[in-house]
């Protein structure tokens, strides 16, 4: 495991605060719930296996994995998300371990888990290669690595490109999160350490919003990255410009009507064997 620098601690503290802002648990409950079970199914998780869910958030994949009888450790940089997940697990009568951890510095021994997975989580670690190295390090040879990530050319990739126009400069060495949803990028990160069994682009269909612009308003009120970037736009006198750009984005990506919005959020579901 690489050493943690003061600059890295400062960056991760900012990330932790960003994800604790807004109401990410409500976002999960509103339209992200199907993703976790899809990843669990693709990884063929069953009873008795040891599973690490990296950047697990509120346990959208961790809890379904534990309900299949796996021994699950759910990790995330943000304790508030894990606390919300623990309440959900308790309500469902599901047992698993919740551990605050940085995806780029996982506190586990080499080859500790049968299955290492992440559902729209590890992709937000700023240093992609470092995070990928950690995923590979803690997975046993012959074990499974399963990742579900938004694609760069899908709706969320477009959203992050839009928000990037209003964001402060990224930290040194950071890469855009949706690159994890690129087959080529993912293969480059893992190299010959993972033999990919499947890489499939799928779509999460969103029908939770009445009007197209309601999608953007929902993100501005609840999604940490959007909240932080809009605040930066406001500090620079560009809040109205940000709002107008987000409204136009929602209209552009709406495949429904003006009174019944519909969005297709593309992701890459990749499952491989640790060599």
From TrEMBL:
Residue ranges constituting the Methyltransferase type domain according to the UniProt record: 52-145
UniProt entry keywords in alphabetical sequence: Methyltransferase, Transferase
Single GO molecular function: S-adenosylmethionine-dependent methyltransferase activity
InterPro entries associated with the record: Methyltransf_11, SAM-dependent_MTases_sf
Domain of life, per lineage: Bacteria
Coiled coil (residue ranges): none
GO BP terms, alphabetized: methylation
PANTHER family: 2-METHOXY-6-POLYPRENYL-1,4-BENZOQUINOL METHYLASE, MITOCHONDRIAL, METHYLTRANSFERASE
Protein name in UniProt: Class I SAM-dependent methyltransferase
Species in which this protein is naturally found: Solirubrobacter ginsenosidimutans
């Amino acid at each position: 495991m690489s050493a943690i620098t003061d600059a890295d601690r400062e960056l991760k503290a900012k990330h932790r605060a960003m994800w604790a802002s807004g109401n990410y648990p409500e976002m999960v409950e509103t339209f992200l719930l199907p993703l976790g079970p899809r990843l669990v199914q693709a990884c063929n998780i069953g009873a008795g296996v040891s599973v690490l869910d990296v950047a697990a958030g509120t346990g959208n994949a961790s809890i379904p994995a534990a309900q299949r009888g796996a021994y699950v450790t759910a990790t995330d940089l943000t304790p508030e998300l894990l606390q919300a997940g623990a309440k959900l697990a308790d309500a469902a009568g599901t047992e698993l371990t919740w551990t605050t951890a940085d995806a780029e510095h996982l506190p586990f021994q080499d080859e500790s888990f049968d299955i290492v997975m992440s559902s729209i989580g590890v992709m937000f670690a700023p240093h992609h290669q470092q995070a990928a190295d950690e995923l590979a390090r803690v997975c046993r040879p012959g074990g499974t690595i399963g990742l579900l990530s938004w694609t760069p050319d899908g709706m969320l990739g477009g959203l992050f490109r839009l928000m990037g126009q209003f964001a402060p400069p990224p930290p040194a060495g950071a890469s855009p999160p949706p690159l994890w949803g690129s087959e080529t990028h993912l293969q480059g990160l893992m190299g010959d350490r993972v033999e990919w069994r499947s890489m499939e682009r799928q779509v999460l269909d969103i029908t939770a919003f009445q009007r197209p612009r309601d999608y953007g308003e929902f993100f501005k009120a609840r999604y940490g990255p959007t909240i932080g970037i809009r605040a930066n736009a406001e500090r620079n006198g560009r809040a109205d410009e940000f709002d107008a750009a987000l409204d136009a984005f929602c209209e552009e990506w709406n495949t429904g009507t003006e009174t019944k919005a519909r969005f297709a959020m593309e992701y890459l579901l990749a499952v491989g064997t640790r060599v």
